[in-house]
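task queued by scheduler; priority normal; single chain, no ligands, no partner chains; default sampling; output format set to structure tokens
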Amino acid sequence: MLYGDAAVLASLVSIFVVGSLGYIKGAVDKSGLAAGILIGSLFALSGGLTAVIMLITFFLIGSFFTKYGYSRKESLGAAEPKKGARGWKNVLSNLFFPSLAIILYRLSSDSTYALAFVSSISCSLADTLGSEIGLLDRRGPWIITSMRRAQPGTSGAISILGTISSILGSFIIPIEAFQFGILSFNELFISSMIAFSSSMLDSLLGATIQAKYLCDGRIVEDPSYCSEAELLSGFRFIDNHAVNLISTGFAFLLSLIEGIV
């Protein structure tokens, strides 16, 4: 990790500039901007410039593909709300465990936490790409547990294009970490496998325990836009943010186990 006053200052400035541009472009709302700057500052102070570069990579790629093909996603009723602007819950659910890992790495200098950091943030990127690019697969998705066809955007549904995107996405940040000397060549592949398997867990949880509601004849995850919503399956307290938190936590845990073994 690159530390030092100059590196930290460059990191903080980068976080503020990229976050502000993200807000202007509609990638985050005000709460997402505030949460992003707060967590980004934590990354800068704990992980230095390299950690911030990996965070910015996640943000830029994830934001681009959230916006990409948005009109088609919207026509399918599967687009992110607020024109794709992410709020504080999105930021926290995706970056809580990467933040925990980078703090523990700063305190201990244990490379296991560096692996946990890279794997957990890579899980978030792999899941984002699998979801956002997968929505554009004209062959449509199917439920991961039953292999039945499903509506685009259904929690727990996967597609060929989305799965390929998730696999490729799981390598992006580990490759960066390898180039920075944070991970070894073997750890690059280990981190990528952990990230991809954790993103698949995200789909599995989405198909099993995530809350789904019947709203105006459609199955939705968020009942706040419905006058009346009936819980069809899952638990009310398990929403998409909770699933993201669990899957990144799983990546964090697998990395710790790998470090012990």
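post-processing summary
- Residues 5-260 form one domain.
- The longest helix spans residues 30-67.
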